[in-house]
Amino acid sequence: xxxxxxxxxxxxxxxxxxxxxxxxxxxxxxxxxxxxxxxxxxxxxxxxxxxxxxxxxxxxxxxxxxxxxxxxxxxxxxxxxxxxxxxxxxxxxxxxxxxxxxxxxxxxxxxxxxxxxxxxxxxxxxxxxxxxxxxxxxxxxxxxxxxxxxxxxxxxxxxxxxxxxxxxxxxxxxxxxxxxxxxxxxxxxxxxxxxxxxxxxxxxxxxxxxxxxxxxxxxxxxxxxxxxxxxxxxxxxxxxxxxxxxxxxxxxxxxxxxxxxxxxxxxxxxxxxxxxxxxxxxxxxxxxxxxxxxxxxxxx
Amino acid sequence: xxxxxxxxxxxxxxxxxxxxxxxxxxxxxxxxxxxxxxxxxxxxxxxxxxxxxxxxxxxxxxxxxxxxxxxxxxxxxxxxxxxxxxxxxxxxxxxxxxxxxxxxxxxxxxxxxxxxxxxxxxxxxxxxxxxxxxxxxxxxxxxxxxxxxxxxxxxxxxxxxxxxxxxxxxxxxxxxxxxxxxxxxxxxxxxxxxxxxxxxxxxxxxxxxxxxxxxxxxxxxxxxxxxxxxxxxxxxxxxxxxxxxxxxxxxxxxxxxxxxxxxxxxxxxxxxxxxxxxxxxxxxxxxxxxxxxxxxxxxxxxxxxxxxxxxxxxxxxxxxxxxxxx
Lengths: 300, 326
Known about the structure:
The complex is a heterodimer of chains A (300) and B (326). Chain A is mainly α. Helices cover 73% and strands 2% of the residues of chain A. Chain A has twelve helices and two strands. In chain A, strands 1-2 form a two-stranded antiparallel ribbon. In chain A, helix 3 (51-69) runs parallel beside helix 5 (103-125), helix 3 crosses helix 10 and helix 10 packs across helix 11. Chain A is globular. Chain B has one domain (2-257). In chain B, helix 3 crosses helix 11. Chain B is built from 15 helices and no strands. Chain B has helices spanning 2-29, 33-58, 67-82, 85-88, 95-118, 123-143, 145-148, 171-193, 196-206, 209-213, 218-244, 254-267, 274-292, 296-311, 315-325. Classes of the chains: A mainly alpha (300), B mainly alpha (326). Chains A and B meet through helix 5, helix 10 and helix 12 of A and helix 6, helix 12 and helix 14 of B.
């Protein structure tokens, strides 16, 4: 471990700022994916181990849309909506059948879907890396220099977009009728049904919302990274960590945990480049031992 | 009670010897390295899956980090056989038996540490914690390049000096030795599962309150089962390392933990030998699919879906239940 490198970075404004912005960007993209995972767990009570493929599909859909339309914003939107539709089919076709099953069956169902979708993607788009869909033209400008830190304006745009979505999501969950229904469904679905509410509708709309968010995360990430079918694996693992640290089912917790993990990744890369992943799991183990319900999880 | 345990001990011993002899005859019936190697691999994977089924089938704990101990066993064996220790202390012909013993012991110790922490949590939190420990272990293997070879795996091979007239360099010796060790381990596992301790595990699985009310120490039962399962997974990993003459970080990745889960699902978790049958189906499927198509995941995924949504239980469980009905 290179403690000195970390101290050097923390004491130099340039390094500190650029790593912080980098961490923020990683964290906010992670939040888009993890918030869906935690929402689905909170309401449906199942862990979507196939959440990573939603992120991956978002990137592929956006790439395809970019090939056809050449418009960045439109492509990202198409990517996210496409994944939302895929999520609807996935929930209605498969997930619905294992709500009552044990954890092992749920894990294996998702594992099967991961294997199948990975191969389908390979059949459709080939097994080579696809190049990133690129940054929209207005952001193709020289980076900003703030305290000598190099900050691409596009990263700021991603951070603000994700932040905006986080706020919208928070308002949807706390200020709207839909949000109170979702929260009610998480606590007592039977009572809700007795009141004449269609809980099936709530279930799949939450799944679609979660898929849409994961797809959006993938589509935005595709702007700068190359696209490959395995890209969902690492984000899946990180989303789990975020979900567990934040408290399963808590969106606020997922937000906080995403920032922690984003920063741990960004500064961890300076301090111990080979053990960044290990560092995240170490945080997860500590949280699980000290506070199994996560930072903001409620005791049931 | 005592008499029946003694009887079943004898019966199991006879079954074990007979199945070993049967496997040895299979070696000569199928005079083909490809088929013989499949049997060796199934034995190793079967042991791995059966060790996990102690936790899943008999204790009801969904451990999602079992490959930790598999990899720990593999790296223990590889690192010990590569070490200077052997030359320094002139262990020579004893190095394989010592390496195998260490590959049971060290994963057992690791399982003790991990187990003490994990079994405090229930259900999904238990699964997550085992997964997290596994990924820390995986990251450590990647990070400690100097010792483990990092993402390249343990390279350079290691010697397999003959002992007690057994030379693992000879194909038949390797086959006979591996199947013997696996059958011995399965025999021991059977005695554990059929002992009062084993029935205690089933009781904990089916009802958490009753054993506690009977003054049963649930945690010590869970911990002991976790240690036994981890040690046996370590043994399976060390045999795999002997077979491949190396150890690879992928063996500690989470997908390696999904494999035995899949075998358990295929073969059945309520029947003692179910996971072994699952390993056989898995290996045949693996071999057949990867030989005939590039789309390995597609086929494998569809098979899993059929089992998950169709049978809802493993093949051997299904057969046993059908048999009882008739």
